Every structure is written in C-alpha cells, then in structure tokens.
Amino acid sequence: xxxxxxxxxARAIERSAMVDADAAISRTYREEWSMIxxxxxxxxxxxxxxxxxxxxxxxxxxxxxxxxxVPPNPGAWITTTAHRKAVDRLAPRGQxxxxxxxxxxHGGRLACRAGRRR
Length: 118
Hints:
Layout: H1 2-44, H2 47-68, H3 74-90, H4 95-115
Helix pairs in contact: 1-2, 1-3, 2-3
C-alpha cells in the first residue's frame, strides 16, 4: 500500500512541476520575449539570429524545466541560453569571437586607429 501511495504522490509532484514549468515559460515569454530578442539584436546585429536563438532557448526550457525545475530567474536563464546558442551558431563564421572579445574591449580604440591616416 505504501508503494502505491508513493507512486501516486510522485505522479502528482511530476504533474505539478510540469504545470509550474508551463506557467513559468508562458509568463517569461509574455513578459520578456521582446527584451531578450532586443538584447540579442543589440549584441549580434542580426534580427533573424536573435529570434531563432531565443525561440531555441524557449524550446530547450520546455524540455528541461519540467525535469530540472524552474530556475530562480527564468528570463536570465532564457537570455543566457539564447546567447550561448548564438555564439555556437556564429562561431564557425568567426563573428561571435569578434562580438564577444574584440567588440567590447577594443572596439572604440580600434575604431579610432582605423579612422586615422598616416
């Protein structure tokens, strides 16, 4: 009898986690989609890549959150996942490295040097 009760309780917890994950994903999509995509566009300069990687991040959340649980900051989790997917997508073309390394730390200085003629 105890084993049956434990199985029923485990199923109830699984259903509850799925409902919580679905609600968190829906809420995060409604409240943060535009900010996530805008941040990715600002960083990578490509709307298509921003939308595709954000959508892939939400798809990953649909798979993982019911199993792993909803993270403490769902919007940050989606943003980080989308950013990593964008880096993975752009890396073969060499664009991600320029954006994440060169663009932030040397962008202004290199632009000034490039503008000068000797």
